[in-house]
Amino acid sequence: MVVEEGLEYGPAKHRAAKALGLPQRTPLPDNDALEDAVRDYIAVFCADTQPRELLALRRLALKWMERLQDFQPHLSGAVWRGTATRWSDVHLDLFCEDGKAAEIALMDQGLIYETRSTTGLRHKPVDVLSLHAPCRELGDLTGESVVGVHLRINDLDDLRGALLPDARGRAPRGPAQALRELVRASELQNG
């Protein structure tokens, strides 16, 4: 579900538990265990396509980060972790003094988006602006593919804590410069 449908870990775990008929309070694997399983699955079943798809999604994310540079964008999720496939969405954390400024920037660019709420970095509700972006690199014979881009609006003050490493010592998100380095390394590796 994570690899072939692009589901995030939480929804995938809950759907799998429901499909298996497990009780609601059944302990589910932690995200690190799930990520290890996703990486194993990709290595076995997607090794020939996933690196190209990940590179395309990272390039798309970088374009959006450059477009929204005034809001200190940081990439997170599967595209940042390196487990994304063509079905994955791009998740950007924006850090703003005024969250409405990001919405105004999208409107000024003539972009159509949907607003929803999710739990933020400080476990309080924050807005997420979701839109669809074309990605020619993921296209096939019928043309370009469309990728979900989700912009989580955080307070500027949340940036400091947002970069603390996870249990494995990895950054949970990264700025445009770090993404540029990942893209450059992939381009060199893939020729």
Automatic annotation (TrEMBL):
Which superkingdom heads the taxonomic lineage of this protein's source? Bacteria
What is the name of the protein in this document? Nucleotidyltransferase
Which organism does this record belong to? Answer: Hylemonella gracilis ATCC 19624
